[in-house]
Amino acid sequence: MSDKHTRGVIIKKGEPVDRALKRLKTKLDTEGILEEMRRRRAFESPTQRRLRKQRTAPKRHKVRWRYLSSSQDAKAEESSAAANNTPS
């Protein structure tokens, strides 16, 4: 079995189980596993999915936006202006 897909923590000698459990929860939280598990617990309609993706998009694309060229920047401004002018 490969360790590539196994998620867990190794308990150090003399370490309390509480602390190891906290490290595991922190690791799962940073990887987004807990959030995905909660999300999959109930049905998510297509509208709810779209809204969730719109809420998280700025965080996902933050690094990409940091390195935009001037032409990409102008194109992004045009598309956001067009999106803001469309009636809902």
TrEMBL record:
Record field: transmembrane: none
Gene Ontology CC annotation, any one: ribosome
GO MF entries: structural constituent of ribosome
UniProt keyword Magnesium, yes or no: no
Biased amino acid composition, Low complexity: 69-88
Keyword Ribosomal protein attached: yes
One Pfam family hit: Ribosomal_S21
Basic residues: compositionally biased ranges: 49-65
Family matches, as InterPro entries: Ribosomal_bS21, Ribosomal_bS21_sf
Similarity section: Belongs to the bacterial ribosomal protein bS21 family.
The name this protein goes by in its record: Small ribosomal subunit protein bS21
Organism: Haloferula rosea
